[in-house]
Design goal:
The protein is mainly beta. It contains no helices and 11 strands.
Protein backbone atom coordinates (compact mmCIF):
# COMPACT_ATOMS: atom_id res chain seq x y z
CA UNK A 1 0.00 0.00 0.00
CA UNK A 2 1.35 3.41 -0.99
CA UNK A 3 -0.18 6.71 0.04
CA UNK A 4 0.49 10.33 -0.88
CA UNK A 5 -0.06 13.10 1.67
CA UNK A 6 -0.34 16.65 0.36
CA UNK A 7 -0.04 19.93 2.24
CA UNK A 8 0.25 23.63 1.54
CA UNK A 9 -2.90 24.61 -0.30
CA UNK A 10 -4.87 27.70 0.59
CA UNK A 11 -6.07 31.09 -0.57
CA UNK A 12 -3.91 33.86 -1.94
CA UNK A 13 -4.32 37.06 -3.92
CA UNK A 14 -3.17 37.31 -7.51
CA UNK A 15 0.57 37.82 -7.69
CA UNK A 16 1.16 35.88 -4.49
CA UNK A 17 2.98 32.63 -3.84
CA UNK A 18 2.26 29.23 -2.36
CA UNK A 19 4.29 26.08 -1.82
CA UNK A 20 2.73 22.63 -2.06
CA UNK A 21 4.38 19.54 -0.61
CA UNK A 22 3.69 15.85 -0.99
CA UNK A 23 5.17 12.85 0.79
CA UNK A 24 4.84 9.26 -0.34
CA UNK A 25 4.72 6.56 2.29
CA UNK A 26 4.45 2.79 2.24
CA UNK A 27 6.48 -0.16 1.04
CA UNK A 28 8.38 1.76 -1.61
CA UNK A 29 11.57 0.72 -3.33
CA UNK A 30 11.71 3.61 -5.78
CA UNK A 31 9.48 6.12 -7.54
CA UNK A 32 10.33 6.88 -11.15
CA UNK A 33 8.40 10.16 -11.45
CA UNK A 34 6.51 12.48 -9.10
CA UNK A 35 4.71 15.70 -9.66
CA UNK A 36 1.45 17.56 -9.77
CA UNK A 37 -1.77 17.73 -11.75
CA UNK A 38 -4.69 20.08 -11.22
CA UNK A 39 -8.40 20.19 -11.91
CA UNK A 40 -10.35 23.41 -12.11
CA UNK A 41 -14.15 23.48 -11.72
CA UNK A 42 -15.82 22.16 -14.87
CA UNK A 43 -12.51 21.20 -16.48
CA UNK A 44 -10.50 18.04 -16.98
CA UNK A 45 -7.51 17.18 -14.83
CA UNK A 46 -4.32 18.51 -16.45
CA UNK A 47 -0.60 18.18 -15.97
CA UNK A 48 1.09 20.96 -14.02
CA UNK A 49 4.62 19.58 -13.60
CA UNK A 50 6.27 16.16 -13.39
CA UNK A 51 9.87 15.28 -12.52
CA UNK A 52 11.64 12.00 -13.16
CA UNK A 53 14.86 10.48 -14.55
CA UNK A 54 16.54 13.87 -14.75
CA UNK A 55 13.72 15.38 -16.78
CA UNK A 56 11.04 17.87 -15.77
CA UNK A 57 7.93 18.70 -17.77
CA UNK A 58 5.80 21.78 -17.18
CA UNK A 59 2.49 22.91 -18.59
CA UNK A 60 3.00 25.93 -20.83
CA UNK A 61 0.68 27.96 -18.63
CA UNK A 62 2.96 27.65 -15.59
CA UNK A 63 6.43 27.81 -17.17
CA UNK A 64 8.53 30.52 -15.55
CA UNK A 65 6.19 30.77 -12.56
CA UNK A 66 6.11 27.29 -11.01
CA UNK A 67 9.05 25.10 -9.98
CA UNK A 68 8.85 21.42 -9.09
CA UNK A 69 11.53 19.81 -6.95
CA UNK A 70 12.06 16.31 -5.58
CA UNK A 71 13.69 14.85 -2.51
CA UNK A 72 14.21 11.32 -3.74
CA UNK A 73 15.62 10.04 -0.47
CA UNK A 74 12.52 11.22 1.37
CA UNK A 75 10.04 10.37 -1.39
CA UNK A 76 8.86 13.95 -1.41
CA UNK A 77 7.94 16.41 -4.13
CA UNK A 78 7.31 20.13 -3.82
CA UNK A 79 5.70 22.72 -6.06
CA UNK A 80 6.76 26.34 -5.64
CA UNK A 81 4.10 28.57 -7.21
CA UNK A 82 4.88 32.23 -7.82
CA UNK A 83 2.99 35.06 -9.50
CA UNK A 84 -0.25 33.14 -9.06
CA UNK A 85 -3.19 34.04 -11.26
CA UNK A 86 -6.95 33.49 -10.81
CA UNK A 87 -6.75 30.89 -13.61
CA UNK A 88 -4.49 28.82 -11.33
CA UNK A 89 -7.45 28.20 -9.02
CA UNK A 90 -7.95 24.43 -8.86
CA UNK A 91 -7.60 21.32 -6.77
CA UNK A 92 -3.97 20.24 -7.04
CA UNK A 93 -3.22 16.51 -6.96
CA UNK A 94 0.10 14.92 -6.17
CA UNK A 95 0.92 12.05 -8.53
CA UNK A 96 3.50 9.30 -8.26
CA UNK A 97 4.10 7.39 -11.47
CA UNK A 98 5.75 3.95 -11.70
CA UNK A 99 6.08 3.30 -7.98
CA UNK A 100 7.99 0.06 -7.42
CA UNK A 101 6.99 -1.59 -4.16
CA UNK A 102 8.62 -4.27 -2.03
CA UNK A 103 6.03 -6.71 -3.34
CA UNK A 104 7.31 -5.88 -6.83
CA UNK A 105 4.13 -4.13 -7.86
CA UNK A 106 4.36 -1.16 -10.23
CA UNK A 107 1.76 1.43 -9.24
CA UNK A 108 0.35 4.79 -10.19
CA UNK A 109 -0.77 6.66 -7.09
CA UNK A 110 -2.79 9.84 -6.58
CA UNK A 111 -3.15 12.06 -3.57
CA UNK A 112 -6.52 13.29 -2.34
CA UNK A 113 -5.94 16.82 -3.58
CA UNK A 114 -5.43 20.21 -2.00
CA UNK A 115 -7.38 23.33 -2.97
CA UNK A 116 -5.60 26.43 -4.24
CA UNK A 117 -7.74 29.56 -4.62
CA UNK A 118 -6.36 32.70 -6.22
CA UNK A 119 -8.44 35.85 -5.98
CA UNK A 120 -8.13 38.86 -8.24
Amino acid sequence: QVELAESGGGSVQAGGSLRLSCKASGSIITIIAMGWYRQAPGKQRELVAMSGRGKTDYADSVKGRFTVSRDNAGNRVHLEMNNLKPDDTAVYYCHADRVLTTSLRNLQVWGQGTLVTVSS
